[in-house]
Write a structure and sequence with these properties.
mainly alpha, 64% helix
């Protein structure tokens, strides 16, 4: 109900109110296959929580509130662990906060997960990682 008007149009306080309701991954207490009929609902709920976390983190960073940005992304990661978009928000938040060690740890985590899963990172993720670690974007060929 809190997100019915659309995540992008909500103010930061409404987004944070929605994130305060997050206690874990949706339907995480169900045994594998127990509620197969609810898999789509679970995936949709996790995606919504991810979107709320990303938008809230971006809005908080835009006003210089790195503590709120960190909390928003971290709270959403509880429901969508290792989500690439949320991890990028964490990287950008720690970069804005000047926490170089955390930035490197997060970049390493994102790239390690992608290698382990055998997937390519989104171009935006690659750009965020390069900028965070190298201080600039590499020229694309």
């Amino acid at each position: 109900m809190l997100t019915a008007p659309g995540v992008n149009g909500l103010g930061l306080e409404h987004l944070l109110a929605a994130l305060r309701l997050v206690r874990g991954a949706p339907l995480a207490d169900a045994a594998p296959g127990q509620w197969g009929w609810a898999e789509e609902l679970r995936a949709d709920a996790a995606a919504l929580i991810r979107d709320v976390g990303v938008v809230a983190a971006r809005k908080a960073r835009a006003v210089g509130d790195v503590e709120t940005a960190r909390w928003a992304a971290s709270r959403a990661l509880v429901a969508a662990p290792e989500d690439e978009l949320l991890m990028v928000e964490r990287i950008k938040t720690e970069q804005q906060a000047g926490r170089t060690d955390d930035v490197r740890r997060l970049v390493h985590s994102v790239t390690r997960t992608a290698r382990t899963l055998g997937i390519d990172l989104l171009p935006e993720t690659v750009d965020a990682c390069q900028e965070a670690v190298e201080g600039r974007l590499r020229a694309r060929s």
